[in-house]
Amino acid sequence: MSVSEETGPIARRGTALVPRPLPGWAVRVLSLLGLLTFWWGLALLKADPMVLPGPQAVLPRLWSEAVSGALWLHLGATLGRVAQAFAAAMSLGLVLGVLMGLLPRLNRWLDPWLVFFLNLPALVVIVLCFLWIGLNETAAIVAVAINKIPLVTAMMREGARALSGPLSDMAQVFGMSPLARLRHILLPQLAPHLAATARAGLSLIWKIVLVVEFLGRGQGVGFKIHLHFQMFDVTMVMVYALSFIAVMLAIETLILQPLEARARRWREA
Q: Rounded distance, CA 255 to CA 244, Å?
């Protein structure tokens, strides 16, 4: 008889019965239910729906916004801005970060620039872009991308610095072409850093997009939050905030986490 048997919800190891761990999706669902319960409890303690409405007040309003179509209109506008700014920032930041990590002389020249833009307040960039370019979509996308590029550059620079020298030497000895080196040597090593950068960057970008919409756009989640803030409608502020958080949580769970796990797989092999 084997020492370890794992069938059903309980695993037998030796003479002890050890509960099998819950699958990842179950843990996530239970964790979110716990967060919902915590929110509901706080709302009960506060007992003032004008200050902190509970799920029983927010969820019906969210449903009515979804049925009317207004929710999808503003979510779509915000997601479009997030996607455009994300693509621009990741592309430019990836190139700059890898070049700075591989070329020490270039890094010495550009490092002060990187530190400057890393510490430049996002609000200043947004206001200046609106003043210089105008209250339009171009200014909104440029402002968000400028705020994101320094973070991507800094993270990808560290990834490029961590590249394995022996692997590069091996590629040179075997006479690998530049394209083969990029595919089999460079990208697999940079993939974990790229996945982590994408996760961190997406969480930053959508927050900045909301600020941009709050200040100068006529559509989007940030615009709706600003509108209901002026009317002191806390319930609708939470409706639009929670709806977009739910979308970002779905993207994180269904897209970013699987990509990150796949990017780390070569290290675990």
A: 16
Show me where the domains of the chain are located: 55-268
User: What are the pLDDT digits (tens) for 13-56?
Assistant: 555 555 677 776 677 788 888 888 888 888 888 777 788 888 88
pLDDT at 198 over 90: no
Structure token pair of residue 97: 């970060």
Is residue 100 within 8 Å of residue 159, measured between CB atoms?
Answer: no
CB count, 10 Å around CB of 92?
A: 16
First to last CA, the chain: 31
- The C-alpha angle with vertex 159 and arms to 103 and 124, in degrees rounded to 5, equals 85
Q: Which CATH superfamily is domain 55-268 in?
A: MetI-like (1.10.3720.10)
Could you give the CA distance from residue 198 to residue 211 in angstroms, rounded to a whole number?
20
3-state secondary structure of 137: helix
Whose CA is closest to 151, among 189, 201, 101?
A: 201
144/200 Cα distance (integer angstroms): 14
> What 3-state DSSP class applies to 3?
coil
**pLDDT tens by residue, 64-88:** 989 998 899 999 999 999 999 999 9
Structure tokens at 74: 């503003």
Q: How far is it, in rounded angstroms, from Cα 160 to Cα 23?
A: 34
Q: Which helix (H) or strand (E) holds 4?
A: strand 4-7
